[in-house]
Amino acid sequence: xxxxxxxxxxxxxxxxxxxxxxxxxxxxxxxxxxxxxxxxxxxxxxxxxxxxxxxxxxxxxxxxxxxxxxxxxxxxxxxxxxxxxxxxxxxxxxxxxxxxxxxxxxxxxxxxxxxxxxxxxxxxxxxxxxxxxxxxxxxxxxxxxxxxxxxxxxxxxxxxxxxxxxxxxxxxxxxxxxxxxxxxxxxxxxxxxxxxxxxxxxxxxxxxxxxxxxxxxxxxxxxxxxxxxxxxxxxxxxxxxxxxx
Length: 245
Known about the structure:
Blueprint: E1 2-7, H1 20-30, E2 34-42, H2 52-60, E3 63-72, E4 75-83, E5 87-95, E6 107-116, E7 119-127, H3 132-142, E8 157-162, H4 170-175, E9 180-181, H5 182-185, E10 205-209, E11 213-219, H6 224-229, E12 235-241
Parallel strand pairs: 1-2, 7-8
Antiparallel strand pairs: 1-12, 2-4, 3-4, 5-6, 6-7, 8-10, 9-10, 11-12
């Protein structure tokens, strides 16, 4: 199977042009089974009122689960999980933030359970904040009782998204206490960096996996289209579920 995580920057590319079709093209060329997306606009005036989550899903013939991390009247902004596999929503909700700091955006997460090869696969996606203390609170919440630490979050599990945190930070270290960075699981060298898309120098998009996941491949496609469509490159993981999962 193949999972892709991608910060689509509200479908505004490096040339400042809004183009949902470019994002669809990048994803479609990679033919993933599960897609985790961050920074989607739904019904926002700045991006023409389009429901970007549904528009992308429809063009890819996938189901979609969207969570609005931020809502302003009828306008929404958040993250989504798309898949062509049978799935059900387990949880979608807010992550903790900090008060009194201007400009911080609300953050959230989505958790679905996918039926894959006769097994149940937990897939979670999120987009953490920009302030280190805020990130630490959010990472702690993700490993806590409502998300990864929940009694129902057992068996094969994948957490993917834009964490705005490199591998030397405390939020990353918190998340890797129970899950493994898929690139380190396979000894990927050099590691795949995804930001900024034109000259990727930073590794802030991650996929974390439970021991039930056998990683078989990794890529961050650097095609002309992927370099232009968003300010992030997509990050792709090929994987199998371990026997008995």
